[in-house]
Write a structure and sequence with these properties.
Elements: E1 8-15, H1 22-44, E2 47-53, E3 64-69, E4 79-82, E5 88-93, H2 98-111, E6 118-122, E7 130-134, E8 148-150, E9 153-155, E10 191-196, E11 201-206, E12 213-218, H3 227-233, H4 238-243, H5 246-277
Parallel strand pairs: 1-2, 1-3, 3-5
Antiparallel strand pairs: 4-5, 6-7, 7-10, 8-9, 10-11, 11-12
């Protein structure tokens, strides 16, 4: 369980696109808040609030923004960055998958604010020994097929710290939804990144085609920004695979939450009128 003394991190969601109205932004931020408190915090021991703001200018200085825009210009601009003071912020390009992407960035920002956190383990690539895996909890199961809903809003699956265990053990949870069933497993549409200290290159296992394959990304240095942002720019397939099959999932979820919310609101309005009338 998460320690009650854990530092509370404050995240701010802001829409800078006309395609995301305040009503939708509030629904998504509420869903992400519930996901963080109920699902993420007990597993990764993080403690955070997720609030919505009308404008970036309204965000308090100690909040980490998640900014939704129509165009972030280049695929490599998506994800987590650091401002000039070293505080993280995330950019999300608007699409049918924007709530899933926002959840993805929210989780990875909380688990690895600087985009450079690594955990040692056995490489999945033959003839490599122990390597340093970049902590990206959503990437191995980031496709829409493994997403789930909170309050009817589509959010991302994420792996647990057991993802880096040396071997599979019965009864162990490797991702929140259970989609990942073994340590270091990469599901279709996902990927895993690591540094091989022997040659100082970064590698990936990617599952974007019919079967997993390996990539050599070469050496990466933090002088060019966070390792995570560099890897994201070298993995252009991720957005396409994340969105596949999402339109129906999002529409169905929003329809359900709108219907139930409307019904409850009507009941409350009737009860309030009854109280006002003295009945």
């Amino acid at each position: 369980m998460m320690s009650s003394s854990a530092q509370i991190i404050h995240l701010a969601m802001v829409s800078e696109t006309k395609n995301v109205k305040v009503k939708e932004l509030l629904k998504v931020s509420s869903a992400l808040q519930k996901q963080v408190i109920r699902d993420l915090s007990p597993i990764w021991e993080v403690n955070a609030t997720v609030d919505s703001f009308a404008d970036l200018e309204d965000v308090p200085a100690d909040y980490w923004p998640i900014i939704v825009r129509d165009d972030i210009h280049t695929p490599g601009a998506a994800g987590i960055h650091l401002d000039k003071n070293g505080s993280p912020f995330a950019l999300v390009q608007h699409s049918a998958a924007w709530s899933l992407t926002a959840s993805h960035e929210c989780i990875e920002m909380l688990c690895d604010p600087n985009g450079n956190r690594v955990i040692a383990g056995q490489s999945p690539k033959p003839k490599q020994g122990r390597v340093l895996f970049l902590v990206e909890p959503c990437d191995a199961s980031e496709a829409a097929a493994y997403a789930y809903t909170v309050n009817g809003i589509t959010v991302s699956d994420f792996y647990t710290p057991h993802f880096f265990d040396p071997m599979k053990v019965a009864g162990v949870r490797y991702s929140y939804t259970g989609a990942i069933t073994a340590p270091r497993e990469v599901l279709p549409g996902g990927y895993l990144s690591w540094q091989n200290l022997e040659d100082d290159h970064w590698y990936q296992e990617v599952y974007f085609d019919n079967k997993p394959s390996f990539r050599d990304l070469g050496p990466l240095t933090q002088a060019n920004g966070s390792i995570r942002s560099q890897i994201y720019s070298k993995t252009p397939e991720t957005r396409q695979h994340r969105e596949n099959g999402l339109n129906f999932l999002t529409a169905a979820g929003l329809q359900q939450v709108d219907k139930s919310g409307y019904s409850r609101a009507q009941q409350l309005h009737a009860q309030i009128e009854s109280l006002n009338s003295g009945h």
